[in-house]
Amino acid sequence: MALYWDQKTVVLPIICLWITSYYAAKAEPINATEESTAKIFWNGQKWAHRCIFHVNETQILDIYTLSHWDSDVCGQACASDGNCTAYAWAPSTPNTEEPFECTLLSGNISETDAKSSLSSARMCGLKDASVLKLVPWNGRNWAEGCVFIKGEFRNSRPGTATREECSRLCSEQADCSGYHWRPAQLCGLVLTESPLVKADALMPSEKNYPRGSILCGLRGS
Description:
Blueprint: E1 47-49, E2 51-53, E3 60-66, H1 71-79, E4 86-91, E5 100-105, E6 114-116, E7 123-126, E8 142-144, E9 147-148, E10 152-155, H2 163-171, E11 176-182, E12 186-191, E13 201-202, E14 215-218
Antiparallel strand pairs: 1-7, 2-6, 3-5, 4-5, 4-7, 8-14, 9-13, 10-12, 11-12, 11-14
């Protein structure tokens, strides 16, 4: 089982993620009892608040569990997946603030498939390549401001003073293929079955993660 760390606790996450990826074994990300007859306001955008998609289980590609402020990363995750056509963002359990689930969907999905929700915490969106942000690799295998959402996240020992030390800790664990490091001397290892690549890195909002407050790197960097 993946782990989740809340930034409000003593042990902080590297990206505030407890993450798991799974498929149709997860129930449909729609709860009919949350539907509303209110109008959905897209406002010329490809995403909207208070909306849900009606889909079947075969349309679920992945479900990632993220902290509440990573809804922008959810849109990026869909945009970077060749099979994703839409996504849904909602609390993983009712009446909670976090964590939230980012559900990537496939198939022919449009605005007309969206239904209004009673929950102000829900949002839905269509694939939008314009939300992808360039990761500043600068010829290296690590970069500032980026995160990985694939895999299982493990918090390494506190007091990891440098990025290089965090990278070394990753290299010492067989299933670690990437890491997050924060100047607050926090190191998080990303455990995956398949190696991470640069294309897996996403850029969260600088409002929540100012440049220099977090970085991500591939194994051996």
